[in-house]
Amino acid sequence: MAPSSEAELPAAKRPRKAAEDSLGGLYDFLPPPDPERDAAAKAAADRKVRPKLPPEDKSRVVFLDIDGVLLPAGSMETIIVDGVHLPVRERMSDSDFSAAALSNLRSIIQRTGASVVLSSEWRRSEAMRNSVGVVLRGNDLPQIKDWTDVLTVRQELQRSDPAISWCERRAREITGWLKAHQEVTAWVALDDLDFNWADSHRVHGTQIMKARSVKTDPKRCLTEEDAERAVQIILRPPRLTEEQAAAATLEAVRATKEALAMNGAIRL
């Protein structure tokens, strides 16, 4: 006659409890998943395997904008001062930045040894510059070497499209820095502004910027493709003949007029 209850079965033949089947009790001591902590741990691991940066090459410079290059557009509240969008708060944290963009900037420095000169509106105060510097150092990037002067908008452009006057001013600021540092022979400007806008209103003595710049998507920031273009500009600096410079200026005028005709105004 078969045993009438589970207790009467031999131990080897008794059905296992559901808890034993799941073995859940064995893992109760483990903490719950934490995606943010896992991401931080992965970033820390990636930093450990990064190749060491080369010595600084004082003949090479990256002119660095922040908004739209390392900091996604719209991620920080801004106010308009003298026609320029300025951040409301002067300090940022690592989490404000695009991790991929920071990595891509490091790739440029790794391959070129270039110095970093701040051309962004984040150069306007010591607190803002220090905030950027802390983030760069925290991502194994070189400290900011210098920053461009803040110039005023040309009088004849004060009533023009704000994007054009802003971009033309930045071109003159970069040109002024280069004139004071003749040792620099190779450089690139990383910016979400289209320097065609500056070249279309260029005055004598100002650098032609488009050929030496990489325009980023302000939402995606600095991509791997952008970084590759920047490296090639630094390693093989474009040398425009007079004819090429004239053609570049005509193209800048055409592109700027087209942008204005399509949109009525250029959006920053």
Summarize the structure.
The protein is an alpha/beta fold and 268 residues long. Helices cover 38% and strands 10% of the residues.
General description of the model:
- With 268 residues, the protein is an alpha/beta fold.
- Helix content is 38%, strand content 10%.
- It is built from eight helices and seven strands.
- Strand 6, helix 6 and strand 7 form a beta-alpha-beta unit.
- The model is unreliable at 17-23 (pLDDT under 50).
Mean pLDDT: 85
SS elements, strand count: 7
Order of helical and strand elements:
HHEEEHEHEHEHEHH
As a percent range, the share of helical residues equals 25-40%
- Low-pLDDT windows of residues: 17-23
Hey, roughly how much beta strand do the residues contain? 5-15%
Question: What does the main sheet amount to?
Answer: 5 strands, parallel
What sort of overall outline do the alpha carbons produce when their principal axes are compared?
globular
- Gyration radius, in Å: 27 Å
Strand order of the largest sheet: 5-4-1-6-7
Q: In angstroms, what separates the terminal alpha carbons?
A: 88 Å
| Alpha-beta content class | alpha/beta
Number of helices: 8
Oligomer: single chain
